[in-house]
Amino acid sequence: MKRIAQTIVFWGVLLALWEMAVTYFKVQSYLMPPPSAIFRAAWEVHPQMMADTWVTTVEVLTGFVAAVAGGLVIGVVISYSALARRTLYPLVTALQSMPKIALAPLMIVWFGYGFASKLASTFLFAFFPVVVATMGGLASVARNLDEHFRALGASPWDTFWRLYLPAALPAFADGLKIAMPLAVIGAIVGEFIGSEEGLGHLIVFASAAARTDVMFAAILMVTLLAVALYWVIERLARFVWWRGINV
């Protein structure tokens, strides 16, 4: 309770200072609206904002799940295959090195303005951290434990399921915490480039209408969405009871 109170006080003081600074220095609202104007704008457009938030949330979660599934499979394949490490891993690294914003227009060309292009953009942003986290977790297993399992006659599948997978889960969970905010960024970037709905579209629309207060309100909603989804992943990661085991 004390930590929550401290957080509330901190943000309350920050917003109050923002409000006073904008008023004192007579900053034009189209440049930097005060928090009071942002909250009024959020209430004014809240029906549309709630609908756009739902659209963006669906895009984020769908792309995130696809990135987790694909990243897990690719990470396992690269970890267990020398051929994949020599061929597939450099390809994945090269894909990660490309600027994602530059690829976003291609998503529109390939998949159109609908849901598929946002899914592809979200997937690209969130995929690589899952691959790296999976590989790092599998590589963290001590060699003597692997030899111990082999000495006991465990099959490769049993060794993976009972040793490597539990050992990799903490690192995998950390990778998910990195991937989730990136998934939100990917969805917003996709909506910036071409969309008729979603929070990214709302930000672009507000910018064209010179409604800076609505832009700030939409950006605040994006931030709250990213923080909320990160918090969910962090809570779920605490159920990974293997975290307390030193393997």
UniProtKB/TrEMBL annotation:
Keywords: Cell membrane, Membrane, Transmembrane, Transmembrane helix, Transport. CDD domains: TM_PBP2. GO terms for biological process: transmembrane transport. GO terms for cellular component: plasma membrane. InterPro entries: MetI-like, MetI-like_sf. It is found in: Cell membrane. The chain crosses the membrane at residues 7-25, 60-81, 88-113, 119-142, 163-194, 214-233. Its main location: membrane. Belongs to the binding-protein-dependent transport system permease family. This is Nitrate ABC transporter permease. It comes from Pandoraea captiosa.
